[in-house]
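Consider the tokenized backbone below.
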């Protein structure tokens, strides 16, 4: 799929959902080109990662080693800090919002809405 196509993100999301359909919500979640895989134990995680990578490989999709993080105890995803115990807003984003000056014009409001 060429880059820049208007429907490329939706098409890619649908493709990833179809490829990983039987595993979504059980061992993984997918958002565009981000795949989050989870488990309770290290052995289970190895199996889950192998399962997802096999599904991708069967469909001729491959992960870039430079962009891949494996066996993490916590992640930052879509503006949230996610760990085994909690999901919370990314502190850097919260600080920016709290430190933002009070808007005095329509363009100030648009700038703030672009932040959040």
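A designed sequence for it:
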């Amino acid at each position: 799929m060429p880059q820049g196509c208007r429907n490329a993100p939706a098409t890619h999301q649908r493709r990833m959902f179809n490829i990983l359909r039987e595993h979504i919500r059980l061992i993984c979640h997918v958002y565009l080109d981000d795949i989050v895989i989870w488990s309770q134990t290290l052995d289970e995680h190895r199996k889950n990662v192998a399962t997802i990578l096999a599904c991708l490989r069967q469909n001729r999709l491959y992960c870039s080693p430079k962009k891949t993080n494996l066996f993490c105890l916590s992640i930052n995803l879509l503006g949230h800090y996610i760990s085994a115990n909690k999901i919370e807003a990314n502190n850097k984003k919260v600080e920016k919002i709290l430190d933002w000056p009070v808007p005095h014009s329509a363009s100030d409001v648009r700038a703030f809405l672009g932040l959040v």
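The domain at 1-71 is CATH 3.30.70.270 (Alpha-Beta Plaits).
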